[in-house]
Amino acid sequence: MRDRTIWWEEDGVGLIEQTLLPEEYREVVCSDVPRLVQAIQRLEVRGAPALGVAGAYGVALACKNALEGSESAFSASVNEAASTLRSARPTAVNLAWGVDRVLSAIQPVSDPVDAAERALTMAESIADEDEATCRRIGSHGAPLLPDDCTVLTHCNAGALACAAWGTALGVIRSAAEEGKNIRVISCETRPLLQGSRLTAWELSRDGIPVTTIIDSEAAYLMQRGEIDCVIVGADRICTDGVFNKIGTYMHAVSASYHQIPFYVAAPRSTFDPEHRMADIIVEERGREEVASLFGRTTVPDAVPVVNYAFDGTPFSLIAAIITEDGLIREPFHHPWLMP
User: Fold this and answer.
1) Where in the chain is the domain with CATH 1.20.120.420?
2) Which of 63, 119, 165, 292 has the fewest Cβ atoms nearer than 10 Å?
């Protein structure tokens, strides 16, 4: 595996095709924005910080390809591509953040060649920042984990969800680096199994003990006293709560009932101070993700399916948000959360 999970190549944006893991490790190159959007929507690349990097590289790719057209059409072509990228996954705020940072860097530039160079420079800078940010999140979060503990996590908030290192898994990696005895319980994360396919794959490669469970088993393990804390990532942090992969809210409710600390690890770019949870459009994904499994139909054709990709967890259930600049705790009155 490369040091980075998403990168720039001469022919376009390179990434690890995550839908194939753990059976097959494959790198792909997206040579145009429609192919990158497809990769984002198919979850070939996923995770809030990684989507921010993908959005940034996507604008750089749009600039590169727009150089092949007329100079007068350059701006319109890039802006159209940026709009398409922004809307690829509406709930994850980092995607639009990455797109807009690169657009801001090139908007004062009139020369297309100069704009394309600046776009790539900014995109590379965002990727570098992401890795450094995750390392700092890990450093701030590691002291929260007991020297000997079992940590529950949901979905995948590791290196595969970022440029490198990870947010929730970055905290776990940092704690393990400090010599703490960390064991991880990875929820499989239905319907696409990011916990069993990706989190378990990452941690096992690192030599960090990991066990995978079905999502609905977590509350029972909490009842049995087998989980010491929960740590997850985030796709958007609003002024009153956190959006993360569907299933996060039920784990937070169970953790609160069993008096187990529930932590969220996320960078500043995931904060959305303009909206409350009720304002957010929650992505609904296709029926086929739920209605079939391993090539077999699991839901009768006449039965409808609801497949929300995310849910919202109110701050009242969260012990702390771990950021690159430290911890945010109750009452969560922090400048990053103020409109």
Assistant:
1) 6-135
2) 292
